[in-house]
Automatic annotation (TrEMBL):
HTH arsR-type domain residues: 24-120
Signal peptide: none
A UniProt-annotated Pfam family: HTH_20
Organism: Streptomyces justiciae
InterPro entries, per database record: ArsR-like_HTH, HTH_ArsR_DNA-bd_dom, WH-like_DNA-bd_sf, WH_DNA-bd_sf
Name of protein: Helix-turn-helix domain-containing protein
Amino acid sequence: MEPDDRPEGTSGNRLGDIELTDPKAMRALAHPVRLAVLERLQRNGPATATQLSPHVGATPSVTSWHLRHLAGFGLVRDAEGSGDRRERRWEAVARGFRFEMPDDEDGLSAARALGMEMFARGAQQIERWAAETEPELEPAWRRVARLANTRVVVSAEELAAIEDAVEAVLAPYVTRDAADRPPGTRGVRLLRYSLPEAGEGE
């Protein structure tokens, strides 16, 4: 996919993710309720604070406060066609988000805080899947579920190339319209971690 073909509102990534560079935005998102709110909107589409509340572990008023906080950093916005301010409908600005580890101390601290919250949330998702979803999967879906722990010895440039190649494979599936999906599709959560080890190694 050429840069000009990439989704609007992104900084050149293939998957249409919003790219966080502001440490304040990273800190704002490093909160379990806010991460849950954003993920729910990205997965299920526009919703009100009242509709989100049972799924994010907060009251409607607290959920509304978190939504306004996320909106202040451009992560959510009023849903298109949402005219009733009393029952405000929100939507995610992008289908996903990403960030890099900055070099400055303030940015690095904020990125670490968000990363730790994402690791914790990822661990919860895996536990719920193993306890609740996997036992109910049909055999065909159980066979294609994957848990892998692969170690490679690469340079920083090679790791960047691996990540780029993975995104190139994923992009057509992430960005295609619902009408183009074949029968029998369902959501699949792909949790990707690239964790460089300390120092040089073999």
